[in-house]
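User: Okay, second chain of the day. Same drill as before: sequence in, structure tokens out.
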Amino acid sequence: MELNPKDFFEGSFGYKAFRLGKLRDDMGVGKLSKEDIDALAQHPEVETVAISGLYQDTFEYFIRTYGHQLKAICFSNNKYVEDWSLLGTLPQLEYAYWHNNQRIETLWDMSRNFALKGLAINDFSRLHNIDGIEKAPALRYFYIGNGIWLTTVIDSLMPLANTGITHLEFYGKKIADGNLSFFETLPELQSFNCPTNLLTTEQFAWIAANCPKAQGRGLKATEDGRVYNSKHSGAPGTYIVGKRKPALAFEDSEARIQKYMDAFEAMKEKYRGVPFNIAFPNKE
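Assistant: Same drill. Structure tokens below.
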């Protein structure tokens, strides 16, 4: 089974999966029963499942009964699951996507998830640290943050240091410790995406300089799009990367945009090969 990583991060692979879930009349998600889950008994060939409406007891039943046959699971709106440690018993699991949970506070032990390539975690209100991510032996794709509002605060991303992560996305409000030195230990990083105002322009330039194989939002001076401000409403333009940086319309800001681009390239040269703690002795 091959999944497109972009599809995985966006959760769109779930639409191609065997679906288990109930919609209520108010378009909410109803509780899934063991009998509902047993629809899988008639489909031993299924390897990808999208599932909603699990509680702790039915989550455990689902994993114990059918987890062994699955290589990718999209968990959406299973907000009452509070312990997902049984995922650690699935050595063949390659991808796991979780959306919307208000009870889980820590990651599970991934040391036996030998095939786990990708993990995406969206809209978890109580998960503030990723300690244990370093135990995943094959993890390459890691996404954590929010699908709608940027409210997630993660204590630190330092557990990613010296891992095999090649694709990283963080769509949240803040990395609490402000320590980005883990990037120094990810020389094979291929992509990094986050809100373009999450870090300072200088920090983005430092990442771009020290992860030269990586591409993504923030790893260049500008991000093109439609500009909405007091002077423009939907005009073609670009967002200057970095905290408190402006959005500028192309029409009347070409010289100013070029100035920002030149400054970004100069920062990259300045920071190339410079350890984070020397470049930024007073982390934000």
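The chain has a mean pLDDT of 92.

User: Thanks, on to the next one.
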